[in-house]
Amino acid sequence: MSRKMILIISMMIFGSVSIIPASYQGVLMNSAETINPGNFKLTVFPTMIIGKNGGDNIWGVAGKGGLGLTRSVDIEVKGAIFKNFTYFGVDIEYWFYRGRNLNASFAVGWHMIDTQIGSNSSGIDTAVMLSTKPSKKLELYGGLKISFDSIKNTGQQIDLIHFIPGLEYRVAKDIDFLAEFGIALNGESRNYLSFGFAYYFLR
After folding, report:
1. Would you say the pTM of this structure is higher than 0.70?
2. All structural domains of the chain with their residue ranges
């Protein structure tokens, strides 16, 4: 086999492996309502990145820690651990529309991904979210999340776009159950499934 062919195959293998961590852009796992001022929220949720074109599913554990800053603004630190990479970032969310039964918010943030294969990346996250309450305990939400990733030392840019429907159910005064499905809207993204609990440290 020629050196050129070996190089091409190696690049294809490396590219397919390195794009998996970069395809993880974090999750929403919250409605359009922000955390009440002074309250702290801790969430933990198993997350599955669904394999593409026959590829294996990848399971990991993700989480967030958030603090309500004002009536309409909160900040959340986010992280995740998967088999071949770790993820860390921060988001600021602004609740800009409060309707009778419709809320809307916008979030912007930053993240970095550290992999065991040397293809580390970092990027900017943006998201727009809508939510509504069909009942006192149940809240349905949907969001469009777009991330812009840059893979270190390669100059390669990856844009990740997901439409994300989800639900939030009040289990107790200070505990919510959440579940969402991330639908990939472009070829560089991966579908994902995430579910778990949010615990509120109420003032």
Report:
1. yes
2. 3-201
What burial letters (b/e) apply to 140-166, b meaning 16+ CB within 10 Å? bbbbebbbebbbeeeeeebebbbebeb
- Which 3 state secondary structure label does DSSP give 72? coil
Residues 155/174, Cβ–Cβ less than 8 Å:
no
Stated as kind and residue range, the H or E segment containing 97 is strand 85-98
List pLDDT tens digits, range 46-67.
999 998 887 889 999 999 999 9
pLDDT at 143: 97
Instruction: Identify whether the C-beta of residue 122 lies closer than 8 Å to the C-beta of residue 100.
Output: no
CATH says 3-201 is which class?
mainly beta
- Structural contact between residues 143 and 158, judged by C-beta atoms closer than 8 angstroms: no
Cβ neighbours of 34 (radius 10 Å): 26
Q: Which amino acid is at 102?
A: L
Identify the three-state secondary structure at position 47.
Answer: strand
CA 139/CA 20 separation, integer angstroms: 31
